[in-house]
Amino acid sequence: MSSDRLCAHCGSPAVQIRHVTRSFGRAATILIIEAIPMYDCPQCGESYFSAQTLHEIERIKALRKSVAVSRPIPVAAFQPAAA
After folding, report:
1. What is the pLDDT along the chain (83 residues), one digit of tens a residue?
2. What are the Cα distances from residue 48, in Å, to 7, 16, 20, 21, 83?
3. 7 belongs to a structural domain
4. What are phi and psi of 3, to 5 degrees?
5. Per-residue DSSP letters for 8-67?
6. Number of domains making up the chain
7. What is the extent of the structural domain holding 50?
8. Minimal CB count within 10 Å: which of 27, 61, 63, 68?
């Protein structure tokens, strides 16, 4: 998905928007936000959120009890394969 914007780091017009999932906090206080729009530049390799997106993330974090839906989350520990 292309954007009309230029990359904030290198000025390339090739910047794209992709949607990512990020977690905030940990253990009992973890909050996972899905479908966050992130700018991704294939020219310079930078990925970043807009100021508006960062403000919305902070709003969601502040209102987490009224906007979040509880779901069970499976967790696995990374264990390197035996060589």
Report:
1. 444 689 999 999 999 999 999 999 988 889 999 999 999 999 999 999 999 999 999 999 999 999 999 988 888 888 888 76
2. 9, 11, 11, 13, 37
3. no
4. -120, 155
5. TTT--TT-EEEEEEEEES-GGG-EEEEEEEEEE-TTT--EE--HHHHHHHHHHHHTHHHH
6. 1
7. 16-65
8. 27
Is position 79 within any domain? no
Please tell me the number of Cα atoms within 13 Å of 74 on its side-chain side: 1
Place of tokens 């390799």: 45
Q: What is the Cα–Cα distance from 27 to 15, expressed in whole angstroms?
A: 35
| pTM of the predicted protein model | 0.80
CA distance 38 to 21: 10
